[in-house]
Design goal:
Helix content: 25-40%
Radius of gyration: 20 Å
CATH superfamily of the largest domain: P-loop containing nucleotide triphosphate hydrolases
Number of helices: 11
Strand content: 15-25%
Number of strands: 12
Number of domains: 2
Order of helices and strands: EEEHEEHEHHHHHEHEHEEHHEE
Low-confidence stretches: 260-264
Strand order of the largest sheet: 6-7-8-3-9-10-12-11
Largest sheet: 8 strands, mixed
């Protein structure tokens, strides 16, 4: 096992009160495994990703639970900022959603990749820059030596995202966290980036947590899926089971919404309603206001996690 998250709770302090963005989330990931965390915008996926790296904004706080990094058994929630800096990049790498937000516009690409190598691997700047060019070449960037001398604004969106991946994998981390890594890219470049991530985790033996709202891309790259809704994980299973036998009504809705448009009809069903406010989430099952199968027990009591088998669990009263 590489990472074990148990009953994690993250709250944001706002003018209106506390937003329970992550509310009792638990999951684990093994070495070489790829896990997708899927849900609509506002369900807490990105907060979960930032929690693992301890990169939450100042108004957010981990208020409960643990994030255990294996095999050392280190609880990341207990570490100081200085200790976390030794973990980020070396043990856990992260690919962010918008590369232009996280790449330094005034720093050359090669130096941005080299910086992590100098910090964590104690390479000289010349050695680190050579390694940066090798990484760009590995990520199939044409003329990598030339690209290393450019600035972020001189690169396309797909190239910038590859640079972000190069920075994230530069120190051979055990775990890579990718937060919506293909959202801002066109379909062709999305496919290239996903194929790249898939080949990297196979070659390097890394584990991957892929944060996405699109169930359609999950089958391409992941082994397991955790479905997240309103701050909670409502279903977990291997990819085949999620696609073949989804049990939570929300998972079913996501699959219908992600269905390939085919034939002259081209009908793709949407989930009625909107995600609830996490300032004051619904009582009982948080999906009940939008659920087509709701019955009297759903609004009253929150469903427990029900274990269907060793690889499948769901939080839904229909499966009791």
């Amino acid at each position: 096992m590489v990472l074990e998250v148990s009953n994690l709770m993250v709250h944001y302090q706002t003018m209106d009160g506390y937003v329970k963005a992550v509310d009792g989330v638990s999951f684990s990931i093994d070495k070489g495994e790829a896990l997708a965390i899927v849900g609509e915008s506002g369900c807490g996926k990105s907060t979960l990703a930032l929690s693992i790296l301890r990169l939450l904004p100042k108004n957010a706080k981990i208020v409960g639970g643990s994030i255990i990094l294996k095999p050392d058994g280190i609880d990341l929630t207990k570490l100081s900022e200085t200790e976390m800096r030794k973990i980020r990049g070396r043990k856990i790498g992260m690919v962010f959603q918008d590369p232009m937000t996280y790449l330094n516009p005034a720093m050359k690409i090669g130096n941005q990749i080299a910086e992590s190598l100098v910090w964590h691997n104690q390479l000289t700047w010349n050695e680190a820059r050579e390694r940066a060019v090798e990484l760009l070449s590995r990520l199939k960037i044409p003329d990598p030596a030339n690209v290393a001398t450019r600035y972020p604004h001189q690169l396309s969106g797909g190239m910038k995202q590859r640079v972000m991946i190069a920075i994230a994998i530069s120190c051979n981390p055990d775990l890579l966290v990718a937060d919506e890594p293909t959202t801002a890219l066109d379909v062709t470049v999305q496919a290239e980036v996903l194929e790249l991530l898939k080949s990297l985790i196979q070659e390097m033996g890394m584990s991957l947590i892929l944060i996405t709202h699109d169930l359609g891309i999950v089958a391409e790259i992941c082994d397991k899926v955790a479905i997240m809704y309103a701050g909670k994980i409502v279903e977990q299973a291997d990819v085949y089971t999620i696609y073949k036998s989804p049990l939570h009504p929300y998972t079913m809705g996501l699959l219908k919404a992600a269905a390939t448009v085919s034939g002259s009809e081209g009908n793709v069903e949407s989930i009625p309603g909107t995600t609830p406010s996490l300032l004051n989430p619904p009582s009982g099952c948080r999906f009940h206001p939008r659920c087509p199968f709701v019955f009297d027990k759903c609004p009253k009591t929150e469903p427990p996690i029900i274990k269907i088998d060793d690889n499948h669990e769901v939080a839904c009263w229909l499966r009791e």
